[in-house]
Every structure is written in structure tokens, then in C-alpha cells.
């Protein structure tokens, strides 16, 4: 299972990544968690940040850390939840020791990602942490999740988080070198698979074996996660997190492992949805300065440029942006509202720094963030007129 049997290939271009680190890379031989492999991964994150990139870590290890504290095994769901609650502090403490910048813990559950408002809140929190130069460390909220509501494993959680933060790549650090054509130990004919263009039934058959004693997901769950990421337009990279040379090579733009390609353009798919989804007649009127900022600079829509709020809508609803005074009712843009109509009426025309003073809280400085906004071409505007 030599990682270098995969050779070297160039990493896809990326600015923001999600790095998933499994329990097998954090567990200590004597119980609890260890920096042995985590230190190299943290060094990669630090180097990437120095290069102007952003990394969100999805970290397992809470149950393993809890076992190390109590020196016991978990026999059922309730015991696993208790061990996770105990171990979370140790996992975060480990990561904080490895970084010179603050580390933030973010616990997510199935409900957080199914409920639109909580989904937006989670995304806003992660975006703000990245803006503040903090390293977010995400884990499933095992202390409250039950089997029917669990995301299943942190491979799939990492794929969901990658889509949540609009990541360019999903990095999955594992204890083997990558995907092989068969089980790399049991099958002497197994060969490295450095590139996967699309996950087919034949590719899934290559994922033999189960997770180790400390993990909940094997290679099959990694392919499931890669499939979710691919559907969101995100490449997935599988590599051995135990090999220091392989991890160091990532910072130099080289992958020794498996690259699973995305199915199309991530941003295009999102923009097409925003452009074509039904939005109704609700929205905002903006002044000429805001319209110019949206069209010429690709800026977010700030409350200072909002002249009027039309209709009733909730946070996260798709709304339309029109120019104030335009009798033709031309739609300039569409996007997801960061504030509901009632709150937006209170902050319309005001500076972003005044939002928290007026409302008592803030979801960010924008009415519509530029990542959630699409400009309509002239022909589409004419159709909406």
C-alpha cells in the first residue's frame, strides 16, 4: 500500500478546501488522541493559509478520545453519545495545540442541514469564521444525534460541509494510499486508481472492506461522499494521511493518491438554479449606485442601496432585485435573502455597521451575499418586464 505507487499528479486549482481527518489518524495507540499524524495535516493547513487559501477541517475522533479518558468501550448509542461529549473537548484541544491561530468548534446535525434557516445560519457562521482567520473544526453533533437522524459518518458530513461552504476541493485523509482496483491486502492483482472521472457501479465494487475499529466509514463511504461532492461540482482527493511526504507534497501542489472528478461546473449549476427557480413577485428596489455595484463590480447587495421592500418573504427565500423608479419593472438580479422582509424594512437605506444596533443581531453585512446572487442577462430581464 505504498502511497508513492500512485505517482504524482497536479492538484486541481483551489482556494477553499474541506479537509476530512478520520479517527484512525487521530487515535493514540494507548487510547485517546495523538498528534502523531495530525501535526503533519495541521502543517499543511498552515502552509495553505500562508498561500492565501482557506481550509475547514472535518474531524472525527471524539468517541476515541472519550474512550481514552474513561478506558472503556461503548456498547450502545447512549454510551457513544456520552463518550463523544467527553471526547470533543480533547479533540479541539489537540487541534488548538497544533495551530498558532484560534480554532473554533462547529457541531452539526442532520436537522441543521435539513432546516433552511439553520442551514443558512451554519453557512454564515463558517463564512464568518473564515473571514476572521479562524480554523473551523467541524464534527457531527453525536451527543444529540440518533441513528435515524445521523449523517452516517464524517466522510459524508465532509461532503455536505464542502457544498455548504462552496469549497473547491474535498480532501479526505485516510490510512491507505487511495483507491485500488481491489482490496490492496487481500488481492495481489490490485492496482492503484489515480483518476476517477465518474463513480460507476464498477468503481463502487473496488471499495472492499469495512472501517477499522475506531472508524464508522470505509472506502465505500468515501466514494459515497465523493459522489455527493461531485454532484455539487467539487473534486475529491483521497490520500494517505499517515505518510508525511504525501501530506507535505499537497502543499506543493502534488497529489499522491486518487482524484475523483466533479461532474461539471460548481458555480454554473448554482447560478442556473438561482436564475431559473420560481421567485414570485417579492423582492427589493435598489438605487442606481447599488445597481451599478451589482453589475459592474459583482458586489453583494448591501442595505444602504435598498430603497424599498416589496411583499413578504423569509430569510433564505429567493427574491428579485429591481431598480427603483423603473416603471418597466425590469428584474436586475435574483438571490437568497439574508434577512426577512420585516427586518429588511428596518435596515433599508442604512449602513451595514448599523444592522446589529437596529435589529439587535446580524447575519452578515449583506442583504444578498454575492455567492447567493445572480445577475439576469438583458434578454431574461426583458422577459420579466
Characterization of the model:
This protein is of the alpha/beta class and 385 residues long. It has 2 domains: 262 residues, Acetylglutamate kinase-like (Carbamate kinase); 116 residues, PUA domain (Archaeosine Trna-guanine Transglycosylase, Chain: A, domain 4). The strands form 3 sheets. It has an 8-stranded mixed sheet, sandwiched between helices. Helix 6 runs parallel beside helix 8. The longest helix is centred in the N-terminal third of the chain and has 21 residues. One of its GO terms (molecular function) is RNA binding. It catalyses: L-glutamate + ATP = L-glutamyl 5-phosphate + ADP. Its main location: cytoplasm. Its EC number is 2.7.2.11. It is an enzyme of class 2 (transferase).
Estimate the global geometry from the Cα principal axes: globular
Instruction: Please report the number of helical segments.
Output: 14
Tally of strands: 15
Q: Estimate nothing, just give the exact number of structural domains.
A: 2
Mean pLDDT: 85
Radius of gyration: 23 Å
Taken in chain order, the helices and strands follow as EEHEHHEHHEHEEHHEHEEHEHEEEHHEH
Which residue ranges are poorly predicted, with pLDDT under 50 across at least 5 consecutive positions? 210-216, 379-385
Function: Catalyzes the transfer of a phosphate group to glutamate to form L-glutamate 5-phosphate.
Binding site for ATP: 20, 174-175, 216-222
Keywords: Amino-acid biosynthesis, ATP-binding, Cytoplasm, Kinase, Nucleotide-binding, Proline biosynthesis, Transferase
Catalytic activity: L-glutamate + ATP = L-glutamyl 5-phosphate + ADP
Amino acid at each position: 500500500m505504498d502511497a508513492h505507487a500512485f505517482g504524482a499528479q497536479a492538484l486541481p486549482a483551489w482556494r477553499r478546501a474541506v479537509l476530512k481527518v478520520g479517527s484512525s489518524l487521530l487515535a493514540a495507540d494507548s487510547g485517546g488522541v495523538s498528534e502523531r499524524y495530525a501535526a503533519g495535516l495541521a502543517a499543511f493547513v498552515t502552509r495553505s493559509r500562508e498561500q492565501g487559501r482557506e481550509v475547514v477541517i472535518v474531524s472525527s475522533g471524539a468517541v476515541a478520545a472519550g474512550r481514552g479518558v474513561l478506558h472503556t468501550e461503548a456498547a450502545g448509542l447512549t454510551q457513544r453519545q456520552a463518550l463523544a461529549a467527553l471526547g470533543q473537548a480533547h479533540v479541539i484541544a489537540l487541534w488548538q495545540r497544533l495551530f498558532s491561530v484560534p480554532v473554533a468548534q462547529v457541531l452539526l446535525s442532520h436537522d441543521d442541514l435539513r432546516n433552511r434557516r439553520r442551514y443558512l445560519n451554519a453557512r454564515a457562521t463558517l463564512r464568518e469564521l473564515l473571514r476572521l482567520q479562524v480554523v473551523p473544526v467541524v464534527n457531527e453533533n453525536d451527543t444529540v444525534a440518533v441513528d435515524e437522524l445521523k449523517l452516517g459518518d464524517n466522510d459524508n458530513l465532509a461532503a455536505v460541509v464542502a457544498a455548504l461552504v462552496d469549497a473547491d476541493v474535498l480532501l479526505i485523509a485516510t490510512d491507505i494510499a487511495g483507491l485500488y482496483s481491489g482490496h490492496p491486502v487481500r488481492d495481489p492483482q490490485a492496482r492503484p486508481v489515480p483518476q476517477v472521472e465518474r463513480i460507476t457501479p464498477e468503481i463502487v465494487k473496488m471499495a472492499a472492506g469495512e472501517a477499522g475499529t475506531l472508524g464508522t466509514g470505509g472506502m465505500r463511504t468515501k466514494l459515497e461522499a465523493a459522489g455527493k461532492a461531485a454532484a455539487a461540482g467539487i473534486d475529491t482527493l483521497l490520500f494517505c494521511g499517515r505518510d508525511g511526504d504525501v501530506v507535505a507534497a499537497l502543499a506543493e501542489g502534488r497529489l499522491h493518491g486518487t482524484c475523483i472528478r466533479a461532474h461539471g461546473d460548481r458555480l454554473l449549476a448554482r447560478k442556473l438554479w438561482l436564475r431559473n427557480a420560481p421567485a414570485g413577485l417579492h423582492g427589493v428596489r435598489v438605487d442606481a449606485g447599488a445597481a451599478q455595484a451589482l453589475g459592474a463590480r459583482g458586489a453583494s447587495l448591501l442595505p444602504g442601496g435598498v430603497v424599498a421592500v416589496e411583499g413578504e418573504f423569509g430569510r433564505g427565500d429567493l427574491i428579485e432585485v429591481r431598480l427603483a423608479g423603473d416603471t418597466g419593472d425590469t428584474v436586475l438580479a435574483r438571490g437568497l435573502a439574508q434577512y426577512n422582509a420585516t427586518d429588511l424594512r428596518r435596515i433599508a437605506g442604512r449602513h451595514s455597521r448599523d444592522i446589529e444596533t437596529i435589529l439587535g443581531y446580524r447575519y452578515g453585512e449583506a442583504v444578498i451575499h454575492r455567492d447567493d446572487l445572480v445577475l439576469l442577462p438583458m434578454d431574461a430581464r426583458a422577459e420579466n418586464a
